[in-house]
Amino acid sequence: MFDAPWIIHPIAGVLLAKYMGVVWHKGEAGNRRAAILAAVLAVLAILGAGWVVHPAAAVSLVACFAFAGGNLFKRHNRQSVRALVSTAAFGVLGAEWVFIPLVVATAISLIGGRDRSLNDPPRVFARKPVNVWPPVEAQQPESPGRARTLTVLAQHPRLPSDSAKRAKALNLQCFEALAYIDERGPGGAHMRFEVEQIQGNFAVEAIGAYLALAPSRANTAVLRDGKTGQDLLNEQLDLLSDGVHRVMQRAEDLGAEQILASHTFVQQKFADSRTRELEL
């Protein structure tokens, strides 16, 4: 160090006071301001204000321990690293005493970390279950009595192509009939029930009964009147389709009755009044 003008000392005192407040700030702005003030204090110490490194080193050391949570090796953040670097810099510039608490803190951190690692219970890593394919549930025989829909059964891989076409056509026919019946209002409740029975029960049971047959004999073995299981299934699907068609005819008759009733009402209510107006 060399002699410097007396003005260096009050400047160092003012900057030291600011540094003692800024050193606790967090974030990018706080780190930047603290680093700049520490660098300026280091320059002032070199220029002659050597006394400033001792209080600056003390406050930097306390801030370093505070930011590190008492352990220099477990918690690293920008604030603690910045305070540690400043403490070391001030120690090099004259505050050698600061290295004693740093060495002691380092030893305590190392010993404490080793003790905790010895006392910690061993970690037990759970073994991941081995994926089994196919799943156990998929290996079970398929039960025809399960609750399934006509939409699903119509796409069953065991269903013959012509039977699948009939099932898909019947399913679409049922949806169209239900939509048309809903437009008829409360008067079509019974017809809606009939279509739902065909779609949700009768067709599902027919396809389920076919799927219950042995795959090797479903399309070849004669069951009744020279008909195989596939022939009987197609016949049932055709009969159910005819049933939906008859329900649709009744729904159309209901629609005709509704418009006729509406026409009669309007005619009786307004045609008579128009006749009276013409007579007057």
Sum up the structure in keywords.
single chain; 280 residues; mainly alpha; 2 domains; two-stranded antiparallel sheet; elongated
What do you see in this structure?
The protein has 280 residues and is an all-alpha fold. The chain folds into 2 domains: 8-115; 142-279. The chain is 69% helix and 2% strand. It contains 10 helices and 2 strands. It has helices spanning 8-22, 27-47, 53-68, 78-92, 99-119, 136-139, 150-153, 161-183, 189-211, 229-279; strands at residues 222-224, 227-228. A two-stranded antiparallel ribbon has the order 1-2. Strand 1 (222-224) and strand 2 (227-228) form a beta hairpin. Helix 1 packs antiparallel against helix 2 (27-47), helix 2 (27-47) runs parallel beside helix 4 (78-92) and helix 8 (161-183) runs parallel beside helix 10. The longest helix has 51 residues, at 229-279. It is elongated and about 120 Å long. The termini are far apart. Mean pLDDT is 78; it is low at 131-146.
